[in-house]
């Protein structure tokens, strides 16, 4: 079986945002918006991607995947990154897309986000909705706001997300 964790480690070192596994091709990654092959990686067979997918799921999740042909999971590669993984069926083969999420939650200032987010985060109550297309920074924006709350006041905050991306 492929050593996917080494591929994730290599991707994290060069700040890849995503790593993709698809049979018939070597794994590839998105770095600064450009999709490129993972250096020195071997072409994957349908068995490789199937084994990888099965290794990431328990029996119950695998059964659901068999029924619905798609599954989203979150997990952590210790010391490297948190992953949001989409496992999907594509033309009778299994593919995986892994989004790398930094273990350290960035700050509002480090991302040059509008300062009004700090003001919103400090309000004692309310509902915040952040919307937009995939990959535009919704989860990271909310994570920075939650980190600001956790650093500056005591509060009971409820998030609804599946899978969970950032851990606090």
What does this structure look like?
- The chain is an alpha+beta fold and 168 residues long.
- The protein folds into two domains: 4-101, Beta-Lactamase (2-Layer Sandwich), CATH 3.30.450.90; 104-168, no CATH class.
- It has five helices and six strands, in the order αβββααβββαα.
- The chain has a six-stranded antiparallel beta sheet with strand order 3-2-1-6-5-4.
- A hairpin with a 3-residue loop joins β4 and β5.
- The model has no long low-confidence stretch (mean pLDDT 93).
Keywords for this structure?
alpha+beta; Beta-Lactamase; six-stranded antiparallel β-sheet; 5 helices; 6 strands; 30% helix
Quick summary:
This protein has 168 residues and is α+β, with helices and mostly antiparallel strands. The protein has helices spanning 4-13, 46-55, 59-68, 116-121, 138-152, and strands at residues 16-22, 28-31, 34-37, 70-77, 81-90, 93-101.
